């Protein structure tokens, strides 16, 4: 039996992991690619020593240009079963990784590709590269993306993107908060520098910070503050805080163990 082609590759660099999409020049979202991406994400979720994950488009022209439209016709009446629910699960699993995640966008991130990027905590965009949701040109909808982008940029700007399908350029993406960093040459190289910085910080504090920020989007203020109290106690119980304090007084870089 022939081996399925590798459409997603995972590369580990110490405590940093990179997920590279490898599905042709446009990295189109297909069921096969999603299946491999989900496997990669689930494997990383079980690795407590990984402190940061970078998602990027590998050698392709696009970070990810969206869904493969050729898959639409055969699933017309069974789309929820054959595509929508499965794709939503993969996006949720990516967003729920407990360590910080970065999307390094060196080529267009459109439609389902931009949905992938929005599931990451931070986005690094190469100057001159656009992002957006062009689905309305085909009468389609980026459902998952509509929810995530509205929480990021607000309802008016989200509707503008979804109603018009216009692509957002680098400067506007940075101004709106769709991108955290803009790279003049390589988004991946900048993402690696950001990942190095993140991985040098306290891994427990980073994971708890991510959890608090995510939960605070949905919880009442009092419930979120109660959760923050528990998180702070977990920090004070950790070896990492003791190491950080000792390093501060000894004027050296801390060596965090993640415990």
From TrEMBL:
Its EC number is 4.2.1.17. Pfam families: ECH_1. It comes from the Bacteria. PROSITE patterns: ENOYL_COA_HYDRATASE. GO terms for molecular function: enoyl-CoA hydratase activity. Transmembrane segments: none annotated. Keywords: Lyase. Belongs to the enoyl-CoA hydratase/isomerase family. PANTHER family: ENOYL-COA HYDRATASE, MITOCHONDRIAL, ENOYL-COA HYDRATASE-RELATED. This is Enoyl-CoA hydratase.
């Amino acid at each position: 039996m022939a081996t399925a082609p590798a459409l997603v590759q995972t590369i580990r660099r110490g405590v940093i992991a990179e997920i590279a999409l490898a599905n042709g020049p446009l990295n189109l979202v297909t069921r096969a690619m999603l299946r491999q991406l989900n496997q990669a994400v689930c494997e990383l979720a079980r690795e407590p020593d990984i402190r940061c994950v970078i998602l990027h488009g590998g050698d392709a022209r696009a970070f990810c240009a969206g869904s493969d439209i050729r898959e639409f016709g055969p699933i017309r009446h069974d789309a929820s079963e054959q595509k929508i629910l499965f794709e939503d699960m993969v996006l949720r699993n990516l967003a729920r990784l407990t360590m910080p995640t970065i999307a390094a966008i060196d080529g267009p991130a459109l439609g389902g590709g931009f949905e992938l990027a929005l599931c990451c905590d931070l986005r690094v965009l190469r100057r001159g590269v656009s992002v957006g949701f062009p689905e309305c040109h085909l009468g389609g909808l980026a459902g998952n993306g509509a929810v995530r982008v509205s929480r990021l940029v607000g309802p008016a700007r989200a509707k503008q993107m979804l109603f018009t399908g216009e692509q957002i350029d680098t400067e506007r993406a940075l101004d709106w908060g769709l991108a955290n960093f803009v790279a003049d040459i390589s988004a991946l190289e900048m993402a690696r520098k950001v990942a190095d910085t993140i991985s040098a910080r306290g891994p427990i504090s980073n994971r708890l910070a991510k959890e608090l920020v995510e939960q605070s989007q949905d919880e009442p203020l009092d419930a979120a503050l109660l959760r923050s109290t528990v998180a702070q106690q977990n920090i004070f119980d950790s070896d990492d805080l003791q190491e950080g304090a000792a390093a501060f007084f000894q004027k050296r870089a801390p060596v965090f163990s993640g415990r």
